[in-house]
C-alpha cells in the first residue's frame, strides 16, 4: 500500500513534516530513546495508535525492517473547520455541512463522501479518534470524491457543533429517538446534518446539543437503514427543498 510507512525515525520525520497520519501501529513492549521520542510526539499530536502483534506489522510492512512501528498516512489533506466555516459563510448563503459522529466503516464513509459531493455539501466533519480513516479503500469507494470535498478533523464532535451553532448554522441529528420526521424539518437555512455510527447512532451527549432531531419513516420490519443510505436520504431531502420552485 502506498500510504504505509514504517520505521520509528521515518514516522517521526513524517509527523514533523506535517504529514497527516491516520493511525500508528506499535509492537507491544517497545523500548529505547527513539521510541520514547515517538511516543511523546504521538501523545502531543493526539494520533490514534494500536498495540498489535508483530505478525500484523510484518503484513503491513511486507516483512520489511519496521522496528516495531508502522504508520498509515492519509492520502488527502485535512482542513481547519473554523476556516472552512468562515469561507463558506462568505461564499455561500445556504451552507450545508455533514458531521459524522464516529462512523467506523470505510466503505460507508466512502459512499457518504460520494453522496455528499453530489449533493453540494460544503465540508465533512469527522473526529480524530474513533472514526473511519481516509485510506485507499475510502478513496476508491468515494469514486475520487474525497479529493473534491473538504474533510475537517476535530478533537471532539461536540466542539464542532458548538462552533457551527455559534456561526449561525442549525444542527439536525438523524436519530430514531424522536417523533419528528425528516420531511418536517426546514432545510432552507444554514444546516449541519449529523449522522451517527453504525452500531450506536448519534452519541447521546451530541443529541442533547442539536437544534433538531429527525428520523426517516420505516415501513418494513427491519428497524433501521444502512447509515450511508440514511445519509443519502437526508441529503437529498435537503436538495429537494432547496431546488423546489
Key structural traits:
alpha/beta, 60s Ribosomal Protein L30, Chain: A, elongated, 37% helix, 2 domains, Alpha/beta knot, 4-stranded mixed β-sheet, 6-stranded parallel β-sheet, 10 strands, 245 residues
Order of helices and strands: EHEHEHEHEHEHEHEEHEH
By CATH, the topology of the largest domain is Alpha/beta knot
Q: What is the domain tally?
A: 2
Q: Which percent band covers the strand fraction?
A: 15-25%
Record field, number of beta strands:
10
Radius of gyration: 20 Å
CATH architecture of the largest domain: 3-Layer(aba) Sandwich
Mean pLDDT: 91
**Which range best describes the helical content: under 10%, 10-25%, 25-40%, 40-55%, 55-70% or over 70%?**
25-40%
Give the strand line-up of the largest sheet: 7-6-5-9-8-10
Q: Biggest sheet, in brief?
A: 6 strands, parallel
The helix-and-strand class reads alpha/beta
Determine the CATH superfamily of the largest domain: SPOUT methyltransferase, trefoil knot domain
Poorly predicted sequence stretches spanning 5 or more consecutive residues: none
CATH hierarchy, class of the largest domain: Alpha Beta
In words, what does this structure look like?
This protein is an alpha/beta fold. It folds into 2 domains: 4-73, 60s Ribosomal Protein L30, Chain: A (2-Layer Sandwich); 81-243, SPOUT methyltransferase, trefoil knot domain (Alpha/beta knot, 3-Layer(aba) Sandwich), CATH 3.40.1280.10. It is built from 9 helices and 10 strands. The protein has helices at residues 8-16, 33-45, 54-60, 81-91, 106-118, 136-141, 157-166, 204-207, 227-243, and strands at 4-6, 21-27, 49-52, 69-73, 96-100, 123-127, 151-154, 170-174, 191-195, 212-214. A 6-stranded parallel β-sheet has the order 7-6-5-9-8-10, sandwiched between helices. Strands 1-4-2-3 form a 4-stranded mixed β-sheet. Strand 2, helix 2 (33-45) and strand 3 (49-52) form a beta-alpha-beta unit. Helix 1 (8-16) packs parallel to helix 2 (33-45) and helix 5 (106-118) runs parallel beside helix 9. The longest helix has 17 residues, at 227-243. The radius of gyration is 20 Å and the shape is elongated. It starts with a strand and ends with a helix. The model has no long low-confidence stretch (mean pLDDT 91).
Amino acid at each position: 500500500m502506498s500510504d504505509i510507512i514504517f520505521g520509528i525515525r521515518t514516522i517521526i520525520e513524517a509527523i514533523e513534516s506535517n504529514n497527516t497520519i491516520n493511525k500508528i501501529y506499535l509492537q507491544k513492549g517497545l523500548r529505547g530513546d527513539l521510541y520514547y521520542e515517538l511516543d511523546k510526539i504521538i501523545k502531543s499530536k493526539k494520533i490514534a495508535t494500536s498495540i498489535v502483534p508483530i505478525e500484523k506489522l510484518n503484513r503491513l510492512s511486507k516483512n520489511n525492517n519496521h522496528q516495531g512501528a508502522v504508520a498509515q498516512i492519509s492520502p488527502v489533506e485535512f482542513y481547519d473547520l473554523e476556516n472552512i466555516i468562515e469561507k463558506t459563510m462568505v461564499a455561500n448563503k445556504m451552507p450545508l455541512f455533514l458531521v459524522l459522529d464516529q462512523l467506523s466503516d470505510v466503505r460507508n464513509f466512502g459512499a457518504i463522501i460520494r453522496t455528499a459531493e453530489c449533493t453540494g455539501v460544503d465540508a465533512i466533519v469527522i473526529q480524530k479518534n474513533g472514526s473511519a480513516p481516509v485510506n485507499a479503500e475510502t478513496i476508491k469507494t468515494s469514486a475520487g470524491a474525497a479529493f473534491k470535498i473538504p474533510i475537517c478533523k476535530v478533537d471532539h464532535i461536540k466542539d464542532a457543533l458548538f462552533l457551527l451553532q455559534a456561526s449561525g448554522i442549525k444542527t439536525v441529528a438523524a436519530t430514531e429517538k424522536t417523533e419528528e420526521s425528516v420531511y418536517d424539518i426546514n432545510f432552507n437555512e444554514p444546516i449541519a446534518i449529523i449522522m451517527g455510527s453504525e452500531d450506536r447512532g448519534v452519541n447521546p451527549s451530541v443529541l442533547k446539543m442539536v437544534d433538531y432531531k429527525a428520523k426517516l419513516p420505516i415501513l418494513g420490519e427491519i428497524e433501521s437503514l444502512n447509515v450511508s443510505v440514511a445519509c443519502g436520504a437526508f441529503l437529498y431531502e435537503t436538495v429537494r427543498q432547496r431546488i423546489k420552485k
